[in-house]
Amino acid sequence: MNIEIREAQLCDAKSISELIVPLVKKYVCPDCDASVHDVLLGSMSEQRIESYLSSNYCYFVAVSQNKKVIGVAGIRDNSHLYHLFVHDNFQGLGLSRKLWQAAKQQAIQKGNQGRFTVNSALGAETVYLNFGFKRIAGIRREKGMVDIPMLLEA
Hints:
This protein is α+β, with helices and mostly antiparallel strands.
């Protein structure tokens, strides 16, 4: 399977949002209070992704042979892994690791000394543990959101 990993462009915002929103509904929302679902999903709208791509975020996308965005990684401030999602049909192929490594490598080139954070969804913790992240606290429940704060020091 020929899948390209490349830095995301502003024109990818719609495709990124269309990938992330259903995955968040399926994997993240069930652990969070219903009261935060709209806010959470709104933070992944096409307009919000455009604003991230235009500011202090860097995104990488995995693009299939038919030019569909099937995976995404986004880092804020070259240090916080903000988004990491792979379409269900393409999970288990190592794409999340490839996306993470592309984003991590660029962050290091831009001056990160090897220290990264992520707020893991409950079901994603194993992925981050496999990347070398470690829990820095237990399961956190704040304002309806549920996550696990994690740190990687390379």
